[in-house]
Specification:
There is one protein chain. The chain is α/β, with parallel strands linked by helices. It contains 16 helices and 13 strands. It has two domains: 245 residues, Rossmann fold (3-Layer(aba) Sandwich), CATH 3.40.50.10540; 87 residues, formyl-coa transferase, domain 3, CATH 3.30.1540. Helix content is 37%, strand content 15%. The protein starts with 7 loop residues before the first strand and ends in an 8-residue tail after the last helix. It comes from Rhodovarius crocodyli. Keywords: Transferase.
């Protein structure tokens, strides 16, 4: 699907949320110009990397053209403004007000531009100037407090769920703006305020609705769902959504006596007596290997599976047979497995090197003769 062919996007964001939105637009056919300062997007310096490429920057910048311009110089500023004046969509992730101060605000853009601002806390409010990352927002939003491990300590998720979800939501908002713009009788700008706080809030909609309605934290939904270590050291994940699954679980485990215990009658009572229940189940799980438990649970189609590492996921037969992670041949890095996107599929166009297309883009837009 290439519905956005012919659209020009100036992606001046760094990191994850903004670039993720830009990558999806590129996958849909848009000409996305990845604008970077001379030192590059900070994501180029994190994680597994080679020269000016990293896996992180590759994931979020596939399919774009890379341009380096220095807005600290008058010439660089002029060239960026010239590109912004042509772009259908501009994506920026500066602190609120910075884009306007450096000459990359809506005033420098087309009268019908879709102007996307991505920030931690939004463009207004007492926290709008605060620096923010995915981890900070996991803490602020309450996400980390709900992600307690067996040690009962709040943990950040090791991946970046808030950044990625915010990028996906931003992509959805941009798509709506593109469709809405097609209905205009006169050009008008659309200013999209997209924040990590809003992204985190939408991830936690059920939990926020619950606590707002009750004025307190409700009991856990499906105790004793969770991960349990087995005899061989592997871990099995158990999910429960119906009471019958609790009956099937303990029956298969040979622990039918738990069905007679009034502390464990239903989800609410099990939640109230979680501290008493979990040690009993942990001890039981240690009597068999992970594969033995899974084979047993499959006889009742219970919602269980082995807790894999990402490397083990790549090695799974199912992953291979459905080509869930085809190979992207990324110059500078090599063969990188790149998971396909739901409903979209594989995006296997490499990410640009730092400034790789600067001359090409400037020439194309009539700016090369004045390039530094």
């Amino acid at each position: 699907m290439q519905p956005y062919k012919g659209l020009l996007v100036l992606d001046a964001a760094q990191g994850i949320a903004g670039p993720y939105c830009g990558m999806l637009l590129a996958a849909m056919g848009a000409d996305v110009i990845k604008l970077e300062p001379p030192k590059g997007d900070w994501s180029r310096g994190l994680g597994t990397r080679q020269d000016d490429h990293s896996v992180m920057s590759t994931v979020f910048n596939r399919g774009k053209r890379g341009v380096v311009l220095d807005m600290a110089t008058e010439e660089g500023k002029r060239q960026v403004q010239a590109l912004a004046a042509k772009a259908d969509i501009v994506i920026e992730a500066f602190r609120p007000g910075v884009a306007a101060r450096i000459g990359l605000g809506p005033e420098q853009c087309r009268p019908d531009v879709i102007y996307v601002s991505i920030s931690g806390f939004g463009q207004k409010g007492p926290h709008s100037e605060r620096p923010c990352t995915d981890s900070v927002m996991q803490a602020f939003s309450g996400f980390a407090s709900l992600n307690k491990g067996m040690d009962d300590v709040p943990h950040r998720a090791y991946t970046t769920p808030v950044d990625i979800h915010t990028g996906m939501c931003t992509f959805a908002a941009v798509q709506a703006a593109i469709a809405d713009r097609a209905l205009d009788k006169a050009p008008r700008q659309r200013l999209l305020d997209c924040s990590l706080m809003a992204g985190a809030g939408s991830l936690l909609a059920i939990q926020i609705g619950d606590v707002g309605l009750l004025g307190r934290q409700p009991p856990e939904l499906n105790v004793p769902a969770g991960s349990y270590q087995c005899k061989d050291g592997a871990w099995v994940m158990v999910a429960l959504v119906r009471e019958q699954e609790w009956v099937d679980l303990v029956s298969l485990m040979g622990a039918t006596h738990l069905l007679e215990d009034p502390r464990f009658t239903d989800f609410p009572t099990r939640a109230a007596n979680k501290a008493a229940l979990l040690p009993l189940l942990r001890e039981a799980f240690l009597t068999r290997t992970c594969e033995e438990w899974l084979a047993l649970f499959k006889t009742r189609r219970l919602l269980t599976d082995r807790v894999n590492t990402p490397l083990e996921w790549l090695a799974e037969d199912h992953t291979k047979q459905v080509n869930a992670a085809p190979i992207l041949n990324q110059p500078g890095l090599g063969a990188v497995p790149m998971p396909a996107l739901p409903g979209i599929g594989a995006i296997l166009t490499p990410a640009p090197g730092l400034g790789q297309h600067t001359d090409e883009v400037l020439t194309e837009h009539g700016l090369k003769e004045n390039a530094a």
